[in-house]
Structure formats: structure tokens, C-alpha cells
Amino acid sequence: EAIEKGGYEHFMLKEIFEQPQTIFDSFRGRLDAEQLRVTLSGLDSISDKLLKARRIIIVSCGTSWHAGLVAEYIIEELCRVNVEVEYASEFRYRNPIIDENDVILAISQSGETADTLVALETAKKQGATIFGIVNVVGSSIARLADAGVYTHAGPEIGVASTKAFTAQLVVLQLFALRLAQLKGTISDERFKTLIEGLAKVPEQVDWILKTQKATIRAIADKYRGSSDFLYLGRGYNFPIALEGALKLKEISYIHAEGYPAAEMKHGPIALVDETLPVVFIATQDPFYEKIVSNMQEIKARKGRLIAVVSEGDTQAAELAEDYIVVPQADEILAPLLSVIPLQLLSYYIGVERAVDVDKPRNLAKSVTVE
Ligand code: G6P
Prior knowledge:
With 370 residues, the protein is of the alpha/beta class. 47% of the residues lie in helices and 17% in strands.
């Protein structure tokens, strides 16, 4: 096992640090910035269905569901098609209205999650086309799908998903780019910006891991005794707030909630006092000013602000008690960067609290029963 961990203390840490490579692997051979081309033969094989589809339904669970939420924003923005994101466990039991015009995107690391599998079987019987975004080659969901794309993250051992999530985000971005190109809903210029941006992500992730590790560790040490955390983000970073909170719950057993930042006024703000750490994803994007004003509201109530900010930021970093820096990126690519410090923060807090981070209590890597 020590050899498999490659010198890292835990699989989870190894998998977090593998991400510059796994992100690269998930777009390798699929991206050509010079020819303005994204190659996804799985997608092209069902292009007639996708071009006709009135909507795309994403079905998944857990962290994969968060990847689906990010994809909803990206696909709607770039491809101008309606996207719905469903918890597989709810979808399968509520007699959903599906027909042969629907395309279902199934996102699953393991390809074996029982609820996702049954939801897909049900939809397939009703005539829907199933497109799988799966990590484990030859898994049940991969076999059931009519077409698909593998995420190429390699085996993920840590129960809490990290590198599989970022690989899913990459593949979903490629999916949106290719579909947008087929539909003619993206300009060449935007397409080029995004694929060039994506090609830079591995080195940007590497930069975060190398330069922010010590800061994140210190933040973990400082806040490890907290009993609750709130995570807030907007737009493409809203699902990252959910994922940050989920990661913390899973591997530190600290209660954490993720919310869209503006929604905090409808409940979570009541929790804010001088003991509550509030993690804001405050990177440079069209929502930045709004996020900063949400931060001011928390500060006025004496909440402890921790912010993930873009390189060169002043306002959010100044407001925060502690902050972590990530490189600037297009808003569509930003989730790939902003999630990295949140994974690492959870990891260090989990370790400080002596949790078995690779195998947290009560959780399973793959939930193959209902
Ligand atoms: C379990 C795992 C999570 C994972 C979820 C969905 O809860 O602990 O890390 O996100 O299942 O799994 P899947 O394999 O379908 O992505």
C-alpha cells in the first residue's frame, strides 16, 4: 500500500496532487487549439439525437451531481439548450416524463452507483438516449450507455472524490464545446479562448498546489475546531460551494453547508456569529462585485471570512481574515481551479481531526445498494 501511495500519507492527498496530470489526461488527444477542434467520437455518434433534443437531463449522485450542476450552467450558456440536473434517487421514483427526444447525461465515477444505474435503465426503456461520462472502464453504466466518454482519471481510491470530479468537469466542458460547435452557438473566438484556457489548467492547478499548500494548511490548523462551516459562491462557482461543503463533511465530520451566495439571506445568515467560518469563492468573474457585497454583509455580522480569490485581487482578500489565491481563468474554467483549495482544506482539517480520510466512517466509495 505504501508503494501505491507513492510517498503520500494518504490516497486522497496523492489523488489531489495527481490532478495536473489527470486533468491533462482527460483532454489529451481531444483538444486541438490550432485547428479549433474538440474530438469526442462518442458525442459525434449521437449528434443527430443531441441536435434534435429539446433538453438534456443530467442524472447522477454525490460529487458527480455537483459536476452535473456546473455542466448545467456551461451547456446552457454555450449550447443554448435546456439542461435539467437530477438526483438519480429522486428521478427514478417519480415517474419522470421522458421520450425518445431526450438525451440523458449520466455522470458517474464508478459506473456502478445503484440509483444512477436504475434511473438510466428506466429512461432507456422509455426511449431516451443515454450518454455516459464514466471513469471506470467497462463498468455497468458504461455498458448500458448508448455512447459516452471516459474521464481517464485513473483509479480513485479515496472515498471522497477529488481527481474524478475535475476529470468530469473537463469532459463536460469538452462536451459543451463540441456540442456548441455542432449547433453553431459559439464563435470561433470564444471557442479558441476556451480551449487555450483549458490547455493551461494543468499548470495552473500545479501552481495552486505548490504555492498555496502552506497557506491552506495554516488555515486548516486555525479553523479545525469549528463545529460548522458555511460555503458560498455564485454562478459557475455555486456548485463548487456545495462541493467544498460536501468534502468537508465527508472527511472531517464537521457540519458544513453550501449555498448560492445570494440565497444566504433566506436562512443561513441567521447562523452567522463570531464563531462561524464562512468560505467565499470570490474569484474574478461577472459576479465579483456581488460576492464582495455578500462578504461585507457577513463581516458586519462578525462571521469569520475565508476567501478563495484570483491572483491580483485586492477587495475580497482585504475583507477576508484569511485567503487563498488561484490563477485568473475564464469563468467557465474557473471551477476547475477554485475546487482545488477546498479539497486540500478539507483534507488538512480531516487529518488534523484524526479522521481516516481515505475511508471516512459510514461512507462507501461506490453505493451499489439503495
Ligand atoms: C459515493 C462516493 C462519492 C461519489 C458518489 C457517486 O457517495 O463516496 O464520492 O460522488 O458515491 O458515485 P459515482 O461513482 O456514481 O460517481
